[in-house]
Amino acid sequence: MVQPESEIKLEYDSKGMPFRRLGPSGLRVPLFSYGGWLTLGQSVVGDPCKEIIKTAFENGINMFDTAEAYNKGECEKELGRVFKELGLRRTDLVITTKLFWGVRAGPNAGGLSRKHIIEGTQESLARLQVEYVDVIFAHRCDVNVPMEEIVRAFNYVIDKGWAFYWGTSEWTAQQLEEAYHVANKLGLVGPVSEQCQHHMFHRDRAEKEYAPIYKKYHLGNTVFSPLASGLLTGKYNDGIPKGSRFDVEKDFFSSTIKALQSPEGQEKIRKVKELTKLAKEELDTTPGNLALAWVAKNPNTSTVILGATKPEQLLENLKALKVIPKLTPEIIKKIEKILDNKPESHPTYGRPALDEFGKHLY
Ligand SMILES: NC(=O)c1ccc[n+]([C@@H]2O[C@H](COP(=O)([O-])OP(=O)(O)OC[C@H]3O[C@@H](n4cnc5c(N)ncnc54)[C@H](OP(=O)(O)O)[C@@H]3O)[C@@H](O)[C@H]2O)c1
Q: Which GO terms describe its molecular function (predicted)?
């Protein structure tokens, strides 16, 4: 159903936001998007949700990520309510949601069976108060469902017009290969995007494991947790501030908090402090914006999903757009020296490495 013009109260203005294609698809996604994990419908409810989304939209962010599992559907409900109240044009928005964990217990209330993919999609659409989402993600792979059933079910959802594309989240490269193989064999569409954790302290899957997948299928990453839940802003350098994520969600993050006290954790804090110095002295920016710009610069990143509990955090994080052009090869070299965690290339066993052009012939 075409949305009546009388419902539109806020027109979209990209405000200079760069756009990239979502992997091999024709869909244009903003380089920075916003997601509501642990925030919308959970630590942030009611009008403050509207303030965050309005701030995002008015500053060029028109893509919003959620999941059925985010506080058992409450995040989707808040987003749906706010889109309506703000009077946003559906065609201006890119809405993504994810299925896997469900919103209630039950043998078929989650996972990636055809039953849950179809029923879960319908329930998400109802909570979001929309007729379709732009991309529907498999929030994790379900190893107990045949891949053919998963691929067929997501294609059914697309054919019904309930989603335009499908994607995966935290699948292994092997699981993705199987999905593409099945889709190609059956003449169906494969995933266009992975929603994968990628930040300065979490690199292997996004930078090494998926390398052949990017080359063969042009998969685009919708990066999650780009600030390592806030660690890369430096806010945890001297303990856990009251009201921060690690304070509010201390049970969920108990192992992360414990790991921060270990020698490895303390080493991360030391690196954040060094990155802070580099950011300030050479780029006139913050460590958080350096971290966001760094992951946005990666050519396999389609969008970086920002998290924020307040509009001010979003405005601060969007300043990272101005840092991206400052990341020269010399600065990247300095960052790599501090991080000292660049994933190693696959071994050549003594044979000479391929040159730049040879590498692209995979
Ligand atoms: N597919 C998946 O499995 C998966 C998993 C996780 C996330 N995601 C998606 O990715 C989105 C982003 O992930 P994330 O929220 O973990 O991202 P993140 O950027 O790593 O962390 C965001 C949190 O850091 C803090 N923060 C952000 N900007 C700040 C600033 N300028 N100064 C100080 N603190 C700041 C805020 O928490 P406090 O203010 O509470 O400290 C904010 O909620 C999620 O909302 C979700 O849509 C997907």
A: oxidoreductase activity
